[in-house]
Amino acid sequence: MSQDVSELLKKALDLPAEARAALAGSLLDSLDDTVDASAEEEWNQEIARRIAELDSGKVKPVPWAEARRQVAAILNGR
């Protein structure tokens, strides 16, 4: 990694979490120059379905710390 890239990364990591997330999203978007319209529509439908489940109370959100603990447990074979 070049010195310029290292400095840029250090500055990016000093940003607040919301700004880092926006930056990461923008960087990822810049790598994908093709859009599959049908896949995009399917994702939009899935997002709408999940929002409806949350709004109806059918599913309950899990705090990030708990979700991370559960994922770590699965990855560690527990």
Detail the topology: elements first, then pairings.
Layout: H1 3-13, H2 17-31, H3 37-56, H4 64-75
Can you describe what's shown?
By secondary structure, this protein is mostly helical. It has 4 helices and no strands. The longest helix has 20 residues. It is extended and about 50 Å long. The chain starts with a helix and ends with a helix. The mean pLDDT is 93.
Search tags:
extended, mainly alpha, 78 residues
Concise synopsis of the structure shown:
The chain is mostly helical. 74% of the residues lie in helices and 0% in strands.
Q: Which structural class matches the secondary elements?
A: mainly alpha
Average pLDDT figure: 93
Radius of gyration: 18 Å
Number of strands: 0
**Helix-residue proportion:** over 70%
Proportion of residues in extended strands = under 5%
Q: What are the secondary-structure elements, in order, as H or E? A: HHHH
